[in-house]
Design brief:
Elements lengths: L30 H4 L8 H4 L21 H13 L13 H12 L12 H13 L11 H5 L6 H15 L2 H18 L2 H4 L3 H12 L5 H6 L1 H13 L1 H4 L13
Helix pairs in contact: 3-5, 5-10, 10-12
GO molecular function, one term: GTPase activator activity
Protein name: Rho GTPase-activating protein 1
Organism: Geodia barretti (Barrett's horny sponge)
Amino acid sequence: HRYDLSLKVPVRHLATSDSRSVFHTPLPLSGEEEKGGEASAGHAARASRRQFGVRLENLQLDDNNIPKVLSTCVEYLEKKGMEVVGIFRRSPATATIQTWKEQFNKGHEVDLESHGDPHLAAVLIKLFLRELPEPLLTFNLYDPILALKSRPTEEKVSVVHIMLRERLPPINFDILKYLVRFLAKVSAHEEVNKMSPSNISIVIGPNLIWGTNPVASLAALGDINSFTLLLINHSSEIFPEQTKASKTEEY
């Protein structure tokens, strides 16, 4: 999507790897946000109010373990955006996006209905994903995901179900499950909104995962989008109702 590739935001270098990517444009973090730390019972007390450009384990989450910006945008779109033609493809003015982004970053209660533009909520979802310091699907799963392309579809579904449950951190798993189920709902209205699972995967896929090499990430777009399409088309099998993320060392 042309808008996804055009934002002029400086890329922050991660200490652990060269993670520069055209899809990854996080803003500099404050000292509090840089400290990191594991999620714990006291997480909410020290979590960053900021929603964009912050590691997931440092975010304030809602009662369902979902970042506030994501749940706010999804809930609004479920009410007002499901039948909007080209949702996730169109974008408001950059100044408008930045204004609303700052409202979330300041910890304000955001009322998207007061603006009345579903495209704003859709863009904020993509922006939130793209500005994560590490992609939602993590750097560790980049190569395993690309390696799936040679497997038959029926085998991929089972493999992906296990891989995501066992290798994604619990917070990432919960957010991905929440997001993919929502995207499947959007695609169910494709006769009206013209956003088929394939169309959605093209605009969302590059914001779910990228590699440490931007050139290689561009070359892998087809495989990334195909993986996203698999998630949407088989959301109920990959994310059954009772599925919980589990911590294991190997897949």
